[in-house]
Amino acid sequence: MNEFIQQMVNGLSLGSTYALLALGLAIVFTIFGLVNFAYGELITIGAYTMFACSSLGLPWIVQALAGILAAALASILMELIAFRPVRHADGTTMLITSFGVAIAIQAVLTIVVSARARTVPQPSWTVATLSVGGITLPAYQVVTVLVTAIALLAMVLILKRTNFGLAMRGAAENFQTARLLGVRANRMVASAFLISGLLAGIGAVLILARTGGAVEPTMGLAPVLKAFVAIVIGGIGSLSGAVVGGLVLGVAEVMLRAYLPGQVTGLTDGILFALVVIVIVARPEGVMGLKARLRT
Amino acid sequence: MLQIDSLHVSYGAIRAVRSVSLTVEEGEFVVLLGPNGAGKSSTLAAVMGLLKPSSGTVAFLGREITGQQTEAIVRSGLVLTPEGRRILATLTVRENLLLAGAIRPDRKAMHADLERLLERFPVLGRRTGSAAGTLSGGEAQQLAIARSLMARPKLLLLDEPTLGLAPMVVDQIFEIVAELVAEGLTILMVEQNAVRAIEAADRGYVMRSGEIVASGSAADLGGAQGLVTSYLGVNRE
After folding, report:
1. Mind listing the pLDDT tens digit for each residue in B21-53?
2. Contacts of B76 in chain A (CB under 8 A)
3. Which residues pair with B190 in a beta bridge?
4. What is the domain count for chain B?
5. Which InterPro entries does this chain map to (chain B) (predicted)?
6. Which of A165, A220, B18, B70 pairs as cysteine with A159 (C-beta 3.0–4.6 A)?
């Protein structure tokens, strides 16, 4: 039982990271109509900024804040430089642009830093454990769940309680109608990218705490794929669906890895992606997508 | 107040609007009539910056607005209640109104207007917290009009406000429009229901195949029945 609870917390911790990342991907999608595959590179940029700060000997908290800010700034620049010129082009053009941006950033990091993995030393609390009622939990998992919960709560408050959030929800439902109500298109798109970048940056800090601080140019690929899977599970276009999808995916991944027979644990990702194919075939609107459709 | 000059709009090879010129003076109620596909909605979309005209100009309050961003045009006081109502279904009734009012700097007056509109449209007042997607067609149209009024428009463009509504509800919408006119709001309305529209309006323009083929008061257009047989009837050609 104790082991199951530990695995559950581990799953929720991984799942909440996925939920955070999925939300960042979903926000840009709902406002801008683009699945931004260069989103993974925002995580990479956050991580490499932490690496640069750690090389300069700056304290961890400064590294973390700099990483989050760098990801947010990179996201805004990405929109201005790469996506704004193709905003009115079709979806395929935007998608290919996002792949181009991803490859360009990976190439720059490979040339300027190295193709090999580097390490950002992590503070000691990331490897500490907490004992709660006889159950031993890694501290980073508890912190991850808490940080994600705070970030999600902040997002909910912004979306539900502010004029900006109201405009954001209106624009997410129908961008043109929102513009007819006076919502400023450029500002809305830039804000979506800003929030997306902030979430990617927070994700980068949490991922490094989980992996012991390994950074490499292609490190963004796995998280962006998982975030994409999460929004597919949750129903593409639904923000709450993205969060639910992320949690489901994280728990499923940890549970499969923990309880599958030893010979097939390597197939965890394969099984997950197969499940996603089944979801797409059986419920193209996603788990939460049906509700979203009824609302529109 | 609004001056459209030689406006052309094309969708690829299809020329939807051809050399349309029309004006709306302050305080007027003008209707734009014509059969389906005549280019009426395309004209309004081009005025609002939703479509890019291939040539021609649009001026509002004496300033050219051709090519401006839709939201900038809305913020200058030219507001469209779009065809099909375009209610934001996932937001509540109140949120739809608040979002439309968010462009105004006078927050107190904006909230007072909101309460007044909820009294004026009791169906909305009873459903402020409901998702707007649950409203019926007539209720949604009232919300669409109320939402436009939240922006305190100087000129209101109404695109097909009675489309798809039951006859009794159509009466109700015409009454609302008449009230707004009586209060002094300037309105340009596109309407399929040509006879009723021209009788209620000060003047009208008739569009056919992308061009304006006639204009003037109901009498100028040969009376309401004359209008139908001359310009809108199916047996003309």
Report:
1. 999 999 999 999 988 888 999 999 999 999 999
2. none
3. B32, B159
4. 1
5. AAA+_ATPase, ABC_transporter-like_ATP-bd, BCAA_Transport_ATP-bd_LivF, P-loop_NTPase
6. A165
Contact state of B102 with A184 under an 8 Å Cβ cutoff = no
Tokens of A3: 């082991």
Q: How far is CA A254 from CA A22, A40, A61, A191, A248, in A?
A: 18, 21, 28, 33, 10
Other CB atoms within a 10 A radius of the CB of residue B162 amount to 24
Residue appearing with tokens 């109901």: B218
Q: Where are the domains of chain A?
A: 19-218
Q: CB distance A170–B70 less than 8 Å?
A: no
- B178 part of a folded domain: yes
> Structural domain of residue B37, as residue ranges?
1-83+152-230
CA–CA gap between residue A74 and residue A48 (Å, rounded): 12
Return the pLDDT at A285. Answer: 72
Among candidates A166, A177, A295 on the partner chain, residue whose Cβ is nearest the Cβ of B131 = A295
Residue B2's alpha-carbon distances to A180, A281, B154, in angstroms, are: 18, 52, 10
- Domain membership of residue B89 (yes or no) is no
Which residue among B80, B90, B100 sits closest to A295, beta carbon to beta carbon?
B90
pTM comes to 0.85
Start-to-end C-alpha separation, chain B: 36
The DSSP 8-state label assigned to residue A81 in this structure reads I
B207-235 pLDDT, tens digit each: 988 999 888 888 787 776 777 777 776 54
Residue A166: its chain B contacts at CB < 8 A? 91, 95, 98-99, 102
- Please report whether residue B20 resides in a domain: yes
φ, ψ (nearest 5 deg) of residue A57: 80, 20
Tell me the pairing of strands B186-190 and B29-33. parallel
Give the number of residues written for chain A: 296
pLDDT tens-digit profile of B91-141? 999 999 999 999 999 999 999 999 999 999 999 999 999 999 999 999 999
Distance between CA atoms of residues A183 and A171, nearest Å: 8
Which residues in chain B are closer than 8 Å to A182, comparing Cβ atoms? Answer: 71, 74-75, 100, 102-103, 151
Question: Domain containing B218 — which CATH number?
Answer: 3.40.50.300
Is residue B146 included in any domain, yes or no?
Answer: no
ipTM: 0.91
CB < 8 Å to B132, chain A: none
